[in-house]
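Lab notes, practical 5.
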Amino acid sequence: MYPLIRFFTTSIHAAMYKPIELDAVCETSFRCMPWDIDMFFEMNNGRVLTLCDLGRFSLAIRTGLAKALKENSWGLVVAGSTARYRQRVRVFNKITMRTQVVAFDERWFYIVQSMWVKGQPTSSVLLRTGVTSKGKVVPSNEVLDALGATNLMLEPSEWVKSWINSEENRPWPPSS
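Output from the prediction step:
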């Protein structure tokens, strides 16, 4: 089940915090609750990705993207992701999610999100995301114009470039 209460509380908190630039780190806090854990008594990997959704919503609100989405009848899409899990998140652990746009090209925005517990990283996700209108991806420069961020330049780091290249070589549709 999608955590609607967390969605609303995260949205309210994000609206109360000061606005940030598109390339700034957006921090969002959560607590691992009993309904977040799996049979191994740790946070379920699917719930990690759901909380990443909420971290991106928080980023959208604080950067003004949410307002631009509403004004232009735009939507958001995830077109690819890769996750790395390294430490267990246990019930009642306080989690700090860090979300940052690290690069963009003519169509896509690349976002890195990481979860931290007691100052230690537990997981990290790299995502290819986009803004959509009428079933098509809105060019990045239009999104940047709507945000007043036309001078923003974010070149991908080497590892992000490698991931982008590997995704371009990945067969689609899958053979099995």
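Observations recorded by the TA: Residues 45-63 form the longest helix (19 residues). The beta strands are 26-31, 75-85, 94-104, 109-117, 120-133, 136-137.
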